[in-house]
Amino acid sequence: MGITLIAMPFDVLAPAKVNLFLNVTGRRDDGYHLLESLFVFTGLADRIDGWSSELPHIHVSGEFAAGVSADQANLVLQACELMRRESGVAKPMSFCLEKYVPVAAGLGGGSADAAATLSALNDYWELNWPQHRLLSLARELGADVPACLIDKPVIARGIGDELSPAPALPSYALLLANPRVETPTPAVFKAFARANPAIAARSLPSLPAGWDSVAALARDLAARGNDLLPAALSVTPGITPVLEALRGCERVAYAGLSGSGATCFALFATDEDANAAGEALLHDHAEWWFWWPGKIMG
Ligand code: C5P
To answer: How many CB atoms lie within 10 A of CB 218?
Structure first.
């Protein structure tokens, strides 16, 4: 009797990022924008299961499955193909991707999926590649993928792929909300480029070694802001009421736009404050998408 070997699957999370501030500092000849941005990662995540199989395959489920292609265009399969090419591992992989991070929403969902796949396959195939090797593959998959690979607060410069550790952060909680309108990143950068044909050199407020309170962090976030906000509003006007509602929450320290939107975040000192604000907003705006630390996701 033949023995059938069933490959054990791996199972990893791909956390969503939030840009607490985002400044555009220039534009390269290839059209990519130079940025300075503070990335943090959240408890909201996609889940990826993977196992070795005869043919490459991906099955996508979860609330936002409809927004993601289940073919070679999927960043999980692209990351896997890149790792196979680089490593010479012949056997294809199958994946189940549970999509809980809204798509085209400024939360880096696709980039997080790609980064989690690179790092999971490095373990699954026992390649033991050092982080700098994974980072250079991450760069090939998208400007935000290197930050997602680090998965810790970072300051990103260059086109978003030159990373340094973020100033020390106080403990904080985020409430996320969007109007459920997909807002593709290229459309927002195009609108930004139309409105800003030249980007004047300017000196940005310097960053401290750390913030010892949410109030201090909020002051600096307000000084930096998100330079993509006007362009994002021109693509998705429905961001305005979401941002206004977040700014009006009780005990909110700061509210802003993440990345190219349309997701906005509100910053609080505690999970309890974020949860209370989330429950109140959901009551008034059941049509919007929300996440907060204690929310049970459907
Ligand atoms: O690298 P990624 O595929 O995530 O970028 C999506 C699009 O966003 C790019 O094609 C480019 O139009 C725009 N972009 C940019 N400057 C960046 C990052 C992205 O103009 N730093």
So the answer is: 21
- Sole residue written with tokens 């791909």: 14
HEC secondary structure over 45-113:
EEEEEEEECCCCEEEEECCCHHHCCCCCCCHHHHHHHHHHHHHCCCCCEEEEEECCCCCCCCCCHHHHH
Angle between helices 75-87 and 131-141 (to 10 degrees): 130
Residue pLDDT, tens place only, 253-292: 999 999 999 999 999 999 999 999 999 999 999 999 999 9
Task: Please state the atom number of ligand 1 nearest to the C-alpha of residue 111.
Answer: 4
**147 C-alpha to ligand 1 centroid (Å):** 14
195: CA distance to ligand 1 center in Å?
A: 17
Q: How long a stretch of residues is the chain?
A: 298
Residue with tokens 């250079």: 136
Q: Indicate which atom in ligand 1 lies nearest the CA of residue 144.
A: 4
Active site positions, annotated: 17, 144
Rg (CA), the chain: 20
